[in-house]
Write a structure and sequence with these properties.
By secondary structure, the chain is an alpha+beta fold. The chain has two domains: 2-121 and 270-280, Diaminopimelate Epimerase, Chain A, domain 1; 131-263, Diaminopimelate Epimerase, Chain A, domain 1 (Roll), CATH 3.10.310.10. Helix content is 16%, strand content 44%. It has helices at residues 30-38, 76-88, 179-187, 225-237, and strands at 2-10, 13-19, 48-53, 60-66, 71-72, 96-101, 104-113, 116-125, 146-150, 153-161, 165-170, 197-205, 208-215, 219-221, 244-249, 252-258, 265-270, 272-280. A hairpin with a 2-residue loop joins strand 1 and strand 2.
Length: 281
């Protein structure tokens, strides 16, 4: 079987997109396929695969698998590219659309220039702060600036779910952190029964942050949409920033706003094509 795909990226967070709406392309073992194709030496190279499928409750459905084959609940950078794909290909031709994910239906607002989507604002929903719902094994109703021992060192972290679990910690220097050593220790820590994404954040000023992220199932990535939302919310919960911040990641910038009235978190950033291709599976 020949599988047709489109490689896309949102500030460097790259996925292989498979159109299952206009083509009959659903595969029997998407986890194994994601492992194979995500390999950056022997495959296409990506942070995972996202299948764009029909939905009975939204304009389309996003079904994602990480590079290690694990199923992803939600990806902020990935969903922006879904919005661009379905609009630019004429599948859903409107500038406000709903996308079904394992974390619920997300609403997108598309900014169209010259007939193509340039940036996308995503309503990421309300952050989940109760530890048992994240899930994270900490006492109390919130895990804000709580101590944790990881790899023999003490840290203070803030834990949040944006449809998937995140652990945020603050540092004075993000550049010198050996993420390949400390990231897996956070990811697999016993405090996180479903593993965790970890954000290392430097606060530049009240409206600007710099960060790096270790994603469960993928390792360090150039960007993470849900992680950036979690990092921004953590900054606000700890009184370090205002309710709107510009986040600098390795792959580029995202604007995050935590609306005081609705309680929803809004993320705005670009979505771009890399190339089209096909592979025998």
């Amino acid at each position: 079987m020949k599988l047709y795909f489109t490689k896309m990226q949102g500030i460097g967070n790259d996925y292989i997109y498979v159109d299952c709406i206009t083509k009959d392309q659903r595969v029997k073992d998407p986890s194994a396929l994601s492992v194979r194709l995500s390999d950056r030496h022997f495959g296409v190279g990506s942070d995972g695969i996202i299948f764009i499928e029909p939905s009975a409750s939204a304009d389309c459905k996003m079904d994602m698998y990480n590079a290690d084959g694990s199923r992803g609940m939600m990806c902020g950078n990935g969903i922006r590219c879904v919005g661009k794909y379905v609009y630019d290909h004429g599948i859903v031709k409107k500038d406000a659309l709903a996308v079904e994910t394992l974390s619920g239906i997300k609403t997108l607002r598309l900014v169209v220039k010259g007939g193509k989507v340039s940036t996308v604002e995503v309503n990421m929903g309300k952050p989940i702060l109760e530890p048992e719902k994240i899930p994270a094994k900490f006492p109390g109703s919130r895990a804000v600036n709580v101590p944790i021992s990881v790899g023999g060192r003490q840290f203070h972290v803030t834990c949040i779910s944006m449809g998937n679990p995140h652990c945020v910690l603050f540092t004075e220097n993000t550049d010198d952190i050996p993420l390949w050593q400390i990231g897996p220790k956070f990811e697999k820590h016993q405090a996180f029964p479903q593993n965790v994404n970890t954000e290392f954040v430097k606060v530049i000023n009240r409206s600007e942050i710099k960060m790096r992220v270790w994603e469960r199932g993928s390792g360090e990535t150039l960007a993470c949409g849900t992680g950036t939302c979690a990092a921004a919310v953590a900054c606000m919960l700890n009184g370090k920033t205002e309710r709107s911040v510009l986040a600098h990641l390795k792959g580029g910038d995202l604007n995050i706003r935590w609306d005081e009235t609705s309680g929803d978190v809004f993320m705005t950033g670009p979505a771009e094509y890399s190339f089209d291709g096909s592979v025998e599976i």
